[in-house]
């Protein structure tokens, strides 16, 4: 059974059930003047067909009663179910940017059933049947040229598409963001947003909305509410992502890749069984992304902040390496990092610190010969 949560007046959320990186699908009933207009935001993929069908039955009386489909951008994880919905909702209209339609039209969607956001001659629009005010907010290059967001003035909810979305780093049930959600947002934006300039421009457009959104509802990750709206937007404004991050950290990233490649060769030669376990975890299918690109047991790319990647690797060692061997493996890693002059903050050094009461501590020198 699909769980549907109301996050604002007549504004609903249903989520896919992936552990690491799920999709948020939103539904809105605009009610006024004795009429109703039903909209679905970024309806997802064919994997989400049951979510759409069950939610539409409960909220709209059936998929045939969907009036509008809004697409923030063209990625298949948000758009590929659109033809199915529009086939079932014969009178439905797609609303999206011209750049997005250029690609989703390849699903066979007719231009005659599409409204292009760029063609509206006013920023604030009125839904004629119900009288509700809405606004489309560009999120150019975040992470697509034609990316758009949707602001609902009735609830002060901004549906932000991929912007402000994140990997699942908050533990526990629920869907509201906490401080723990920031790490997932940071990882997602570091990988997928092209530059800080693009991010700042989008943050500025959100900041100009009046009133400021009370809720940011992204297509991935947690729903951002309360003080975290301004807090997370401020952090995003200052976050180094994409090409900016790569340029700044390239020397240290190269050193880290070299040191990790040497670490892999050392652990592979000395502990082949342990390396098999670690390699399987690093390449585990179904994860949001692989943090490291590994080719023939060489690290050839790191997709996130290099210190975050190192923290991830240490956490993985603690998770998949048997406790009896954890100290040895950490020591091998520490040795290679220092040998390659990788600058390590105290937070990393503390994670690499081995247990003094481990029975094999006295044998570390032999391990490094």
Annotate the secondary structure layout:
Elements: E1 4-8, E2 11-15, E3 24-32, E4 35-41, H1 49-60, E5 68-70, H2 76-79, H3 82-88, E6 93-96, H4 98-104, E7 114-116, E8 124-126, E9 133-138, E10 148-152, E11 157-161, H5 181-192, H6 196-207, E12 215-218, E13 224-225, H7 228-238, H8 242-270, H9 272-282, E14 292-295, E15 298-302, H10 306-320, H11 323-339, H12 346-352, H13 364-367
Parallel strand pairs: 4-5, 5-6, 6-7, 11-12
Antiparallel strand pairs: 1-2, 2-3, 3-4, 8-9, 9-10, 10-11, 12-13, 14-15
Brief summary:
By secondary structure, the protein is an alpha/beta fold. About 40% of the residues lie in helices and about 20% in strands.
What would you say this structure looks like, in words?
The chain is of the alpha/beta class. The chain has 2 domains: 4-239, Metallo-beta-lactamase, Chain A (4-Layer Sandwich), CATH 3.60.15; 243-367, no CATH class. It contains 13 helices and 15 strands. The strands form 3 sheets. Strands 1-2-3-4-5-6-7 form a 7-stranded mixed beta sheet. A 6-stranded mixed beta sheet has the order 8-9-10-11-12-13, covered by helices on one side. A two-stranded antiparallel ribbon has the order 14-15. A hairpin with a 5-residue loop joins strand 12 and strand 13 (224-225). It starts with a strand and ends with a helix. Mean pLDDT is 90; it is low at 356-369.
Jot down its keywords.
single chain, 369 residues, 2 domains, seven-stranded mixed beta sheet, six-stranded mixed beta sheet, 13 helices, 15 strands, 40% helix, 19% strand, disordered C terminus
